[in-house]
Amino acid sequence: MKWSIYNQSLVRRGEILLGFDVIDNWDAELKEMNKDKVGKPFHYPNTFLLLLGYAKVYFHLPYRQTEGVLHKDMLNVKCLTFQITVQ
Question: What is the tally of structural domains in the chain?
Answer without folding.
Answer: 1
